[in-house]
Amino acid sequence: MTVFKTFWKVVNKYKGTIIGYTVLLLIFGTLSMSSNDVTDDFKSSKPDVIIVDNDKSVLSNNLVKYFNDNANILDIDLEEEKIDDAIFYRDANYVIYIDEGYEDDVLNGNNPEIKIKSSGDYSSSLAEMLLERYLKTQDVLHDEFSDKSILVNKINDSLKTNANVELATKINTTELTRLSRYYNFASYSIIAVVMFIICLVLSSFNEESVKKRTIISSMNYKKYNKCIMLSSILYVLFVVILYTILGFIVFGSIMFSKRSLIYILNTFIFAIVALALSLLVSTLVNKKEAVSGIVNVVALSQAFLCGAFIPVMWLPDSVLKIAHVFPAYYYINSNELLASLEVLNFSNLKPFFVNLGIMILFIVIFIILNNIFSKKKQVLRWIDVNGVM
């Protein structure tokens, strides 16, 4: 109980730091609410589409041209594995397979089979609407015009007269994008608040005077460590709850949903990653003076490289490759995924679970490294005390 009380006394001593980073997050959350650069209009963001044209005919080329005008056609290796990866990692929203014989089927009055793959987000819904619109127009006109050149012209003329397509989505993409930005920025605050406080608390417990009192007390070493670990986890839980409450204050009703629960789960796992990293840093660094510098370097670097401060879409590929070494990359990637999904099901959430697994792997790695360095320090301390060369 004494360890628990001491832990929270030290936390209370640095409450100004917690308040400071929390105010930053609150300000950013409020700014994201008033931001007008997010829009539900699909025109601001075309879907990313892959088209596999195995027919190479006049009609299939016209379908490709239609998507080239209304979407972003990705130029990638058309191997099935590459296509599946593009869908899985949300590099592509929609894949269209045009089978050989497509043109013959249309001209003969048969319905051509179009196979598709979808990422399940609202951009894929737009791509699906574009495809349906084209195929329905083609289906109406092919009976009247049997010449494929005339048919192509009539299809294009008909599509031009009704070019405005509204994206019917059941989700509020504007609010979800803002919520995602809030949680993305929270990655910076969480890393800073958790690492700064935990490292300083553990540094306080590692002071010689505190160590001596612990040694002469009746509390055994294992119980002592358990109390510190339990206190640390409760502190992390406190931070997650605090930032969740801020989310309710800023975003209101949108937080009352299944989607927000997944955001909270993602945030909690990321906060545990920050805790595990804090334990490692506190083992390697004993001086309180060095903690602030290390925390700032870690928090700011992941914030700039992983998309907390700058949206991922604006970051160059070279930066994103470096970002893969930071846990925040996978946390932010999951936030972006949650903001884009039209339907929440296991298939669509597979990338989320992969990101979650990678963050858990980071936790395991940090704990293993912490144990290795901790044991080495104990050996070196024993050698120093006993004068062994």
Keywords:
389 residues; single chain; 4 strands; 5% strand; abc type-2 transporter like fold; mainly alpha
Short description:
The protein has helices at 2-13, 15-34, 58-70, 80-88, 102-107, 122-141, 148-161, 173-205, 208-216, 221-251, 258-284, 288-306, 317-323, 327-340, 350-386, and strands at 48-53, 72-73, 94-98, 114-118. It is mainly alpha-helical and 389 residues long. The longest helix has 37 residues, at 350-386.
User: What does the largest sheet look like?
Assistant: 4 strands, mixed
The proportion of residues in beta strands is under 5%
Strand order of the largest sheet: 2-1-3-4
Cα distance spanning the termini: 40 Å
Q: How many separate structural domains? A: 2
Order of helices and strands: HHEHEHEHEHHHHHHHHHH
Instruction: Report the average pLDDT across residues.
Output: 84
Level of helix content? 55-70%
Q: What is the overall silhouette?
A: elongated
Give unreliable regions as ranges: 36-44
Radius of gyration from the CA trace?
27 Å
Describe the protein in words.
The protein folds into 2 domains: 2-36 and 172-386, no CATH class; 43-161, 3-Layer(aba) Sandwich (abc type-2 transporter like fold). The two termini are 40 Å apart. The model is unreliable at 36-44 (pLDDT under 50). It contains 15 helices and 4 strands. The protein is elongated, with a radius of gyration of 27 Å. It has 389 residues and is mostly helical. The protein has helices spanning 2-13, 15-34, 58-70, 80-88, 102-107, 122-141, 148-161, 173-205, 208-216, 221-251, 258-284, 288-306, 317-323, 327-340, 350-386; strands at 48-53, 72-73, 94-98, 114-118. A 4-stranded mixed beta sheet has the order 2-1-3-4, with helices on one face. β1, α3 and β2 (72-73) form a beta-alpha-beta unit. The relative contact order is 0.11.
